[in-house]
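Input chain follows. Return structure tokens only.
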Amino acid sequence: MNYIKEMNAFHDELELNGVSSSAQVLWYLLMQFNNKTGWKQEFSVPTAAILVKSGLPESTFLRARRELEEKGYIHFQGGSRTKTPAYEMISQVKESQAAEEPKDRVKEEAMDENKDSAEDLFKRKERKRKENVGGSRQPHTFYEQNLGMITPFMAEKITDWCERLSDEVVIESMRIAVEHNKLFFSYCEGILKRWENQQVKTLADVKRVEAKPERKSRKKDDRAIKLKAMVDEFRKERRI
């Protein structure tokens, strides 16, 4: 790929096949990662690396990625326990434009590119990411700072739950897990499944559903107090 030609072609394509600003940010970032890998046809990037470098919220990133794929800018393959998510950039340069570029120049540029993988680049950013202490609003970062080291499989699990509910709700489930010293994501999933069944999407929804047991308990206590008062009154009348 020719970086400059791809960028120019992308700008031209946006006039006919426009995407949101967050999708544009993601496209440019993926091009950078692809550049770092030497323009491999398929390259792997951890989801957490994209979130840290782009600054996009989890749910916004997911929408942007889906938008780019649906509009023919990228191909995407989800990760697994042992495999990092893989991406393929779809060239926007027309055949007539691509033919103008000398083949020798393409080979020379490819040889000069940094051969480090995207994962190596992410590791070099590890120290900088860990400086964001004390209440990060990124689910992946919150997990690493409070529950433990994140694997590609675990990162995809968190991503899936953020897509199903929201970033803030997933973080809230992890916060509750930390408060109860349950430092494993299966505990968070139990909370998230319950909230999903209760149609929870925001922190306001969490407060609403979590407050219900308290209200019920308070009503039950009030009834018990009233019943005890009635019994005491009845006993007093019997003594008289």
